[in-house]
Each structure stands twice: as structure tokens, then as C-alpha cells.
Write a structure and sequence with these properties.
Blueprint lengths: L28 E3 L3 H7 L5 E3 L6 E3 L4 E3 L2 H18 L2 H7 L2 H29 L8 H14 L6 E4 L5 E5 L9 E5 L4 E6 L2 E6 L5 H5 L1 H7 L6 H17 E2 L4 E5 L4 E5 L6 E2 L4 H12 L6 H4 L29
Parallel strand pairs: 5-12
Antiparallel strand pairs: 1-4, 2-3, 6-9, 7-8, 8-9, 10-13, 11-12
């Protein structure tokens, strides 16, 4: 097997004539969000904003250049995910995490691709060069390599390079809820019957960080407000994480193996309740919960996952908020 695979981040190539995953010349395209998902939840004509809020697209207009091989591979993956989705939580919980990584990775990478194109074009108009820091280049390159497992014989040995948590979730209607942070490679997905949180390149660090609360959640059907809080905890933990994931990549004659390279212990910066409360209030705004409600003088930070005083898990049925 070749000692290298296509890496658009080497020369920052985001060209509509090159497949986003393999680099092959192509005229084909595929949607960033699976077509069946947009059809089922009817959000294809809704708009999504870029990070700086200055530009937006409709979901159905977000497309990636792709080779026929890549398109076929993701269509086959969609069939597996859709079949699991139709079985609810049990179906999703039985899925190999690699499949969830690949399926989620398609959407996260697609959004990242559009952010890269938008920023490149914005800088070009100003006569400035588009660059990425070495740390971002390394992170995105590793992510792209791992996503190529959809079409290449790439396997993950030992500890997985991600944190993926799947759990039962209850909505009162056929609702699709998701949040993303393409730069930090994070994604949350929630529908009636299940939800999952995915941190796609943390080497399992965030899952370990929240091991205690995840233990309390196990076997529980979460209220959506708890789902939002869990993602907020993961998201803010990622924000204060001082850790650069490293990997040993072996190109063998007929496959590629990726192993997490264990180095120094991950370090987390100081948890700032004020910043966390602001982030959480953004997620809880639909419930009318503000930052001032979350942080009140002489009271612990508001939580619907754990009783702020006893740290016992909050029974979802006892939460008097719509779902």
C-alpha cells in the first residue's frame, strides 16, 4: 500500500474538482448531511450559518465534491446507520463505534470544509494568504486520515481516538436536535429514543473526564435538558483541555493501522463557572433559562443531571420542563 494517502491540509486544497476524501478528479457531489436525514426531519431548506455569522447556506445546498467510490461508500454507510436508527437506542448502541465515527465525521468534516473555503475566499479578497497553525493542520490531517477508513483498509488498534457516548433520550415529538463545533471536531445528535455525543479526536480523554456522571446516566432515559447539559460539559471540557493527541500510523503492505500514542497525561485548565454558565445558557435558551438562573449568588451551579447539593442523579421524570 502507498506510504501516503491524500491529505488536503498539506497544501490547503479545497477545490470543487477534487474529491474531498480521496483527492480524485471528479464532477460528482454528495450532500454534507445525509439526504434521508434531511428528508425525514424536513430541514433541508433551513439555513445554517458559518462561524462568524456573516454567511449562511441551506442544509441541502451544502455539498462536497466526491468520487463515485466515495459516494457509494457513504451511501452504503447510510443504509447501516438508517437501519440502526429505525431500531432506536438499542440499534444505535449495538453499532460499531467506527461506523458512528465515520457517519458523524462526514457531517463534521463537511462543515469544516465549508469553513475552510469561506475563510480562504475571505482572505483572498483582502489580498491575504490563507494559513493554518501547525496544531490545526495536524489535528485536521489526522481526522481526515481516520475518515478515509470509509474507503481504505484503515484500522484502529487499542484505545480509540474518540469519545462517543450513546444513551436513551426522550422527546415528545419527532424532533432532530444537533450541535456541532467543526473546528474542535465535536458533534451531538438527538432524536426521540436516543442521543449521542461525539468528540472525534480526543483519544477518549473527555469520556474519561466525565466517567462519574456517565456512570449515573447509564440505564436512564434522559430528558432533553439533560442531554444539552451533558454536551455542554463535554464541550467546555474540550475548551479547557490542554492536550494534543498523537498517533502511531503504520503503512503496511495492504493496510494502515492507527494507534493512540500515549504521552503525557492530559491537563485541564481551570474550570470557570462563569464561562461554563454562559455556554450552558446558550443551550438552555429554548427553555427560557438564562445565565443568571444558572449562576445565583450563594447557590451551586444549576444542574439537571446531578442534584447540586447531593450529587445524586436527577430523575428525568421529575423535571418539569417540556420535552
Amino acid at each position: 500500500m502507498s506510504q501516503t494517502l491524500y491529505n488536503p491540509f498539506n497544501d490547503l486544497i479545497f477545490d470543487p474538482h477534487f474529491c474531498f476524501l480521496s483527492g480524485a478528479l471528479t464532477t460528482e457531489k454528495m450532500t454534507v448531511f445525509p439526504q434521508w436525514l434531511m428528508d425525514h426531519f424536513k430541514f433541508g431548506d433551513e439555513r445554517i450559518e458559518m462561524m462568524d455569522k456573516a454567511k449562511s447556506y441551506t442544509y441541502e445546498n451544502l455539498e462536497l465534491p466526491c468520487s463515485p467510490e466515495v459516494k457509494d461508500a457513504f451511501e452504503a454507510l447510510d443504509i447501516k446507520i438508517k437501519a440502526a436508527y429505525e431500531q432506536g437506542y438499542d440499534g444505535m448502541a449495538r453499532l460499531d463505534e467506527v461506523l458512528i465515527f465515520q457517519w458523524t465525521g462526514r457531517m463534521v468534516y463537511g462543515l469544516l470544509y465549508y469553513e475552510m473555503v469561506y475563510e480562504r475566499d475571505r482572505l483572498l479578497k483582502k489580498g491575504e494568504e490563507f494559513k493554518l497553525s501547525p496544531a490545526l493542520k495536524e489535528r485536521f490531517s489526522n481526522f481526515h486520515l481516520m475518515l478515509q477508513s470509509v474507503i481504505e483498509p484503515i484500522s484502529f488498534k487499542g484505545k480509540k481516538p474518540w469519545s462517543i457516548v450513546v444513551f436513551p433520550l426522550k422527546y415528545s415529538a419527532d424532533i432532530f436536535s444537533y450541535r456541532d463545533d467543526a473546528i474542535n471536531l465535536m458533534f451531538s445528535f438527538g432524536v426521540n429514543s436516543f442521543g449521542f455525543v461525539a468528540c472525534l479526536q480526543d483519544n477518549g480523554v473527555l469520556k474519561a473526564r466525565h466517567k462519574e456522571v456517565l456512570g449515573k446516566i447509564e440505564g436512564q432515559v434522559l430528558h432533553p435538558v439533560q442531554f444539552e447539559e451533558l454536551y455542554a460539559r463535554f464541550h467546555y471540557s474540550d475548551y479547557i483541555l490542554q492536550y494534543s493527541p498523537k498517533y502511531d500510523v503504520d503503512f503496511n503492505s495492504d493496510d494502515v493501522t492507527i494507534r493512540v500514542k500515549e504521552e503525557k497525561e492530559p491537563i485541564f485548565g481551570l474550570w470557570n463557572e462563569d464561562i461554563y454558565a454562559q455556554l450552558l445558557s446558550n443551550y438552555w435558551g429554548v427553555y427560557g433559562i438564562t445565565k443568571d438562573d444558572i449562576l445565583q449568588s450563594q447557590r451551586p451551579t444549576l444542574s439537571f443531571l446531578e442534584n447540586p447539593y447531593t450529587k445524586e442523579f436527577v430523575n428525568p421524570e421529575a423535571i418539569a420542563l417540556p420535552f
